[in-house]
Design brief:
The protein is mainly alpha-helical. It has 3 helices and 2 strands, in the order ααββα. Component of the TIM22 complex.
Length: 139
């Protein structure tokens, strides 16, 4: 047996019940209003900036020419107390990959944070200018 269809009949307290479609439309309107607000735009811009910055950081970290070719060998691997500089190519492949992924992660994280801040500041300044502009036009 199918459940009874929702209708706009009044409840005991006098309020009309909403259909599922009306509830969905109301929810979509609330989400749209939240995203169009300045805090919502800032959150969306920050998230997209973080994602874009992570991708850009990952790509550019593989093309860095200032990356050290020498790495410090800890004393536990045969180095002296202060460590010894060895060519990165002299390390085992697993150590080279560990070093490379560590560098990729650090550069990606720093770039993602920078893009997040840049996008958030840009969107907040845009919202402030729009607010100022609308208040001048209204007056």
């Amino acid at each position: 047996m199918a459940p009874p269809a929702a209708s706009n009949t009044p409840r005991a307290d006098g309020k009309a019940t909403m259909t599922e479609e009306q509830t969905d439309q109301q929810f979509q309107g609330e989400i749209e209003a939240a995203i169009k607000s300045c805090p919502g735009q800032t959150i969306v811009a920050g998230a997209t900036g973080f994602a874009a910055g992570g991708i850009v950081g990952f790509v550019t970290s593989s093309m860095r020419f200032d990356a050290p070719i020498l790495t410090e060998t800890p004393a536990s691997m045969g180095g002296q107390s202060g460590g010894v500089l060895r060519p990165l190519s002299g390390l085992p492949v697993a150590e080279q990959l560990k070093y490379a992924f560590s560098d990729f992660t650090n550069v990606s994280w720093k770039t993602a944070k920078t893009f997040t801040v840049m996008n958030a500041v840009f969107i907040e300044s845009k919202c402030a200018m729009e607010g100022l502009r609308s208040s001048i036009i209204v007056e």
